UniProtKB/TrEMBL annotation, chain A:
It comes from Paenibacillus arenilitoris. It is a multi-pass membrane protein. One of its GO terms (biological process) is aerobic electron transport chain. InterPro entries: Cyt_c/ubiquinol_Oxase_su3 (IPR024791), Cyt_c_oxidase-like_su3 (IPR000298), Cyt_c_oxidase_su3-like_sf (IPR035973), Cyt_c_oxidase_su3_a-hlx (IPR013833), Ubiquinol_oxase_su3_dom (IPR033946). This is Cytochrome (Ubi)quinol oxidase subunit III.
């Protein structure tokens, strides 16, 4: 019932936790990310078990181009920072700033995704297709699962931006923005591991 | 309790039961099983005794409205039933760990041991003796008392190599993933082996035999299996045999290596692993060597559904001739 | 509260009510019906297996069909019967036990049910489209790969379980949040009833175990549908990797199943002994410890895989350790009964029968933990006996106990005690007859999952006894169904506390409870909240709030369509290789798959864009309910 009492009234400092629904959503999302951790943990394990099975395909150290990946990493890390700014703006009730930071986050995410698609396209032309070897299958599955998460995040945050524009910042939209930012941080952390385990370790064999 | 263990020990066929071990490896495993069963029987007796006492003593009488004392717990009791299980587990855990390491000894480099490479196929077993350069199928001939060092792998799906009365099982994995185990059979005899991992429709029919013979017989067998084998004397049967059988199978120095080697099939214990050769058939799956071979070749799918051989297009005369020829392919190594 | 009247929400009735409900009590009933249905299907498969094995060299079913039966029996029973029936009890009981009006995410709760149902239906459609999965419920590669399982059977397994698994995962998250955030005032963690505790730990296990299965199934799906090389040795893949992934999920799954049964037994034994659960804190601690250790022991399913002596020794010892917290539980139950006043209702018969039965399954578990001995037991009928003792003797007896115990709360009607006791004795006798003998079959050398066995091996009599037992279990199940049917014609007159010795919050409200459960949120003053009030001479709970309008979530059809969308998508991707191209280079199967996924995304979009304001149940209605039923 409290969902409505705040709707048009004064927003508290942390609007995402103002209602029980909001608190449930934030807690539920933390738990969901716990499950996602296991998901990516399993994908990492599979990749680590199979990464030396390159067969006829190009091995990791010949394939990967670190500068490209470094740029992608920089984009994604920056987008994580901008999503922090977005949540900060939300806590000080600056809807416009919140929306703008989210837009920047999405744009950076799109940049990352574009680079990743280019990277995959390039690899396939180098003879590193999805079906080439156990290494390639587990590589595309791990990095692709992450990429799919980024793509989903971009769609989700874009939809949120529209909702924030229409509905403004309320105790209903605030938890959504908050968990979307949690999700985005999570994706970012996963990428740090991918960068280390897949690319850096791939380079040093 | 000791009585129970004795009863268990008396159970089952000598050549098949894990409770009637015929070699040191199965013996060691049975020892651990006996220890575990004894400890567990103590647990069961205690729990059953308390259960029965409680059920009878504290059942509610009709019309009973009293409220029993609400007990929160008892630290003393709770410590007792935490510590005693831990002690029991230590009693079981220590020999378990010792045995794990003992049974993982590697004999693959041991010159005293007989080296055997086991390759499992849907649904038959290939046995290669790398030191002698010979391959056979379905029947593992071993010298009595010698340590047999097994390197096990699979040519297709997962299978598991199990000779219950001689040793526990080891999975056969595909790829370069080779597993090792060892066992020995101090007594002469034929022991039944089984596939213990679901591998397709005929998984349950993927039996094999281990035949333990004295050392001189084993040496004679090694020599005999390498000798050249003559083709069927009837030219028509010989032609059919060469074109329709030897494309996959091998006899002596002839034929392909892909499918079970048939050298000496007439003196094996069984055809296809499960049609038991005997002159005194009692069950459905028993018959003379000739009858079994005939039955198998006539329609292998009837015997082992889903096997790779499939029905071979043979005339009645060719079928009889080949069955007869194969039934007479004997290795005379036993005295 | 001006808004309460501005959002008029339609309250459906009839079939639309069931399709759109977000009420945990109704979703619990839906889970029970669906899980019960799949239990019957799995049971029928079990009977066919036992008929095939009742004599040597039988050909009642073909070898192919037999492998389909054993695969579908295992998969159905674990994922589509046992788990949903547990979710039925959890849904029906957990919110009531913590004094909540609903779960944290009613919409997600409904979504969890519909995805499970559509996943389960997809899996079973395989029977009618040319072959069910036949590589075992473990689906070990490479047998489960396309080279050796070329038809669509395993595709159904992969996609059906994937979809059902999503439902389970979100259900788990839902219960975790519900239990953490929605407890009534005074209901601290250490005052929660043990069933709620076990539901909590089980949900945590679901959360951390199911994603591993998700990845495993996705990888197997990629191998099968898109020629990836995860488990195919010829492409550099590793068959043992599948075993690891499967069991990292699979072992916790065993505890996911058994822990709620432990909870049920704790509630039932305590209630019918009229006694507080002995050693409550140690029971909670043991539950947590079992859940934790459950993640450390997966490789004991792989002792014969060739992991080496160090791994085998470590996993042996870790596995044995689980016996300690389990033993604590067993003795706590026995000492709950000790000094009590034990009433043998049907529910309690199942609970009391559970204790020694589960101990028998437990001790064989410790025996299996000794790796060298396991080389002999592994994949023999000894293992079949062991896990049926744990799952049927543990979980199913627990579910039967729970169903008889909470039936009046769920449906407002008492089950017939005479028929109930008949159910117990036939099922219980049949169970021991079926499975006790199988220990010996295994020790005498009978491998599991075999289509038939040769005559003269000494297996004949024992297999026949086992089959007779299975028939008795079938009879027991029929008696239970009969009981359900008979009772449904009886008046709906169960009192709020039908066993008269109820100790927990669910017995303080009408049977069945009104939509909003608690007219006033109760104030909890101690463990066994209701019992405490009774002993203090109160007739009910002290309310924590005045009577006022209650906010309820709106019903929604979206979860149903999301399940349907996943079902369609699964079909499309599965048959993409067969259905040809829609236009050059683009398979029509993919088009169908994408349409299915679009339905899912559209529903998510709608859910996100249109805020659910819910509706209010007004004071007058609540007072009317109270007047009518109190």
């Amino acid at each position: 019932m409290s969902a409505h009492s705040h709707a048009e009234g004064h927003l508290p400092h942390e609007p995402e936790k103002a209602t029980l629904e909001g608190r449930n959503k934030v807690l539920g999302f933390w738990l969901f990310l716990g499950g996602e951790t296991v998901l990516f943990g399993t994908l990492f394990s599979a990749f680590l078990a199979l990464r030396h099975q390159v067969l006829d395909g190009p091995p990791a150290h010949e394939l990967f181009s670190l500068p490209l990946v470094a740029i992608a990493t920089a984009l994604l890390l920056t987008s994580s920072l901008t999503s922090v700014f977005a949540v900060h703006a939300m806590h000080t009730h600056r809807v416009k700033a919140l929306i703008n930071w989210l837009i920047i986050t999405v744009v950076l995410g799109l940049g990352f995704l574009g680079l990743e698609i280019y990277e995959f396209y390039h690899y396939v032309h180098e003879g590193h297709g999805f079906t080439t070897s156990a290494f390639s299958s587990s590589f595309y599955t791990l990095v692709g699962f992450h990429g799919a998460h980024v793509a989903f995040g971009i769609l989700w945050i874009s939809l949120l931006i529209v909702q924030l524009m229409k509905k403004g910042l309320t105790v209903v939209t605030a938890p959504k923005a908050y968990v979307a930012s949690m999700y985005w941080h999570f994706i970012d952390v996963v990428w740090v591991f991918i960068f280390t385990v897949v690319y850096l370790m791939g380079k040093v064999v | 309790m000791a009585f129970m263990v004795l009863v268990l020990a008396a159970c089952g066929r000598e050549d098949l039961s894990t409770l009637n071990p015929q070699g040191p490896v199965a013996e060691e495993q049975f020892g651990l099983m006996k220890l575990a069963i004894s400890i567990m029987l103590i647990v069961i007796v205690v729990v059953f005794a308390i259960s029965i006492y409680v059920i009878i003593r504290f059942r509610r009488r009709p019309g009973d409205k009293t409220i029993p004392k609400q007990v929160e717990g008892s630290h003393k009791l709770e410590i007792i039933w935490t510590v005693i299980p831990i002690i029991l587990l230590i009693i079981l855990g220590v020999p378990t760990v010792q045995s794990v390491f003992n049974l993982s000894k590697d004999y693959t480099k041991d010159p005293e041991a007989v080296q055997v490479i086991v390759t499992s196929h849907q649904y038959w077993w290939e046995f290669e003796y790398p030191d002698y350069g010979i391959k056979t199928a379905q029947e593992l001939i071993i010298p009595t008392g010698k340590t047999i060092s097994i390197q096990a792998k699979s040519a297709d799906v997962l299978h598991s190599f199990w000779i219950p009365s001689l040793a526990g099982k080891i999975d056969t994995n595909p790829g370069a993933n080779v597993n090792t185990m060892y066992f020995s059979a101090p007594k002469e005899g034929v022991y039944l082996g089984k596939c213990a991992e679901l591998c397709g429709p005929s998984h349950g029919l993927m039996d094999f035999k281990v035949k333990s013979v004295d050392e001189s017989s084993f040496d004679r067998w090694v020599a005999a299996i390498q000798e050249p084998v003559a083709l069927p004397s009837d030219p028509a049967v010989a032609a059919a045999f060469e074109s329709k059988c030897l494309s996959c199978h091998a006899v002596g120095d002839k034929g392909g290596p892909a499918y079970p080697n048939l050298t000496g099939i007439g003196s094996r214990e069984s055809v296809g692993g499960i049609l038991v050769n005997t002159d005194d058939p009692k069950y459905d799956n028993e018959g003379s060597v000739y009858d079994n071979l005939y039955r198998w070749i006539e329609n292998p799918d009837e015997v082992k559904p889903g096997n790779q051989m499939g029905k071979i297009d043979l005339t009645e005369q060719e079928l009889e001739g080949i069955a007869k020829y194969l039934s007479e392919l004997k290795l005379n190594y036993e005295q | 509260m001006a808004h309460a009247h501005t959002h008029q929400v339609k309250r459906y009735s009839g079939i639309m009510d069931w399709l759109t409900t977000v009420d945990h009590k109704k979703i619990g009933i839906l889970y029970l019906i669906a899980g019960g249905f799949f239990f019957l299907v799995g049971g029928l498969e079990a009977l066919l297996i036992r008929i095939q094995l009742w004599k040597p060299m039988n050909d009642f079913v073909s070898a192919d069909t037999f492998n389909e039966l054993l695969t579908m029996h295992g998969t159905t029973m674990i994922f589509l019967a046992a788990m949903p029936m547990l979710f039925a009890l959890m849904n029906a009981v957990v919110p009531l036990q913590i004094g909540a009006r609903d779960v944290a995410f009613p919409f997600v709760n409904s979504l969890g049910f519909w995805t499970f149902l559509f996943g389960g239906v997809l899996l079973n459609v395989s029977w009618f489209t040319g072959g069910a999965p036949d590589a075992g419920w473990t689906a070990y590669a490479p047998l489960a790969g396309t080279t050796y399982s070329g038809d669509h059977g395993v595709d159904y397994y992969v996609l059906g379980l994937q979809i059902a698994g999503i439902g389970t995962l979100i259900g788990g998250i839902n219960f975790l949040v519900t239990i953490i955030n929605m407890r009534a005032p005074g209901m601290t963690f250490m005052r929660m009833p043990l069933f709620t505790w076990t539901a909590f730990i089980t949900s945590a296990l679901i959360l951390f175990a199911f994603p591993a299965l998700t990845v495993g199934l996705a990888a197997l799906m990629f191998d099968r549908l898109f020629d990836a090389n995860f488990f195919d040795p010829s492409g550099g893949g590793n068959a043992v990797l599948w075993e690891h992934i499967f069991w990292i999920f699979g072992h916790p799954e065993v505890y996911i199943l058994i822990l709620p049964a432990f909870g049920v037994i704790s509630e039932v034994i305590s209630t019918f002994s009229r006694k507080r659960l002995f050693g409550y804190s140690s029971m909670v601690f043991a539950t947590i410890l079992i859940g934790f250790l459950g993640f450390m022991v997966w490789a004991h399913h792989m002792f014969t895989t060739g992991l080496g002596p160090v791994a085998n020794a470590l996993f042996s010892i870790a596995t044995m350790l689980i016996a300690v917290p389990t033993g604590i539980k067993i003795f706590n139950w026995l000492f709950t009964m000790w000094g009590g006043s034990i009433k043998f209702t049907t529910a309690n018969l199942f609970a009391v029968g559970f204790v020694p039965t589960f101990v028998m399954g437990g001790v064989t578990g410790v025996m299996l933990a000794a790796a060298p001995a396991d080389f002999q037991y592994h994949d023999s009928y000894f293992v079949v006996a062991h896990f049926h003792y744990v799952i049927v003797g543990g979980l199913i007896l627990g579910i039967f106990a729970g169903l008889h115990y909470w039936w009046p709360k769920m449906f407002g009607r008492m089950l017939n005690e005479g028929l109930g006791k008949l159910t117990f004795w036939t099922f219980f006798t049949g169970f021991h007859l079926t499975f006790f003998i199988q220990h010996f079959l295994g020790l005498l050398g009978m491998p599991r999952r075999i289509w038939t066995y040769l005559d003269g091996l000494g297996f004949n009599e024992m297999n026949m006894i086992s089959t007779v037992g299975a028939v008795l279990m079938g009879l027991g199940t029929i008696f239970f169904l009969l009981n359900v049917v008979v009772s449904s014609f009886k008046p709906k007159n169960a009192p709020a506390d039908p066993w008269e010795d109820g100790r927990t919050l669910e017995w303080t409200i009408p049977s069945p409870p009104p939509e909003y459960n608690f007219a006033q949120t109760p104030l909890v003053r101690g463990y066994d909240a209701y019992w405490k009030e009774k002993m203090d001479g109160h007739s009910g709970m002290t309310p924590a709030e005045p009577i006022g309008p209650i906010h309820m979530p709106s019903p929604s059809i979206l979860p149903f369509f999301m399940g349907l969308g996943l079902f369609i998508a699964g079909f499309g991707f599965m048959y993409a290789p067969d259905w040809g191209d829609l236009f050059a280079g683009f398979k029509s199967g993919y088009a169908v798959g994408i349409v299915g996924l679009l339905i899912v995304f559209l529903c998510m979009f709608l859910r996100s864009v249109y805020d659910d304001h819910g509706f209010h149940i007004e004071e007058e209605e609540i007072l009317r309910d109270k007047g009518g039923k109190a």
